[in-house]
Amino acid sequence: MQRIYEARDLLEAEMLIGMLANEGIETFLTGRHLIGAIGELPAAGLLGLMVNDDQAERARQLIAEYNDAELLPGDEPDGPVSYPGELIC
């Protein structure tokens, strides 16, 4: 297995796991149970997505495509955007 991505938070991790599952890629999430210890552990680097070696390249490609996605015209959020440059679902 290879660690292919470091999720920002549990919501992002679960969304990416679902996306990869739809593509037939089984994903294991490391660090899920460490989130409750934030404050005692470093806040970054706890959550990692891992996949089988033979699926790692495809999974990285799918995540890169997701991160590079742009909003469709008319799908812009109303009001100020808290995270410029990030896709809002």
From TrEMBL:
Domain DUF2007: 1-66
Pfam family, one: DUF2007
Family matches, as InterPro entries: DUF2007, N-reg_PII-like_a/b
Protein name as catalogued: DUF2007 domain-containing protein
Organism of derivation: Pseudomonas saudiphocaensis
Taxonomic lineage: Bacteria, Pseudomonadati, Pseudomonadota, Gammaproteobacteria, Pseudomonadales
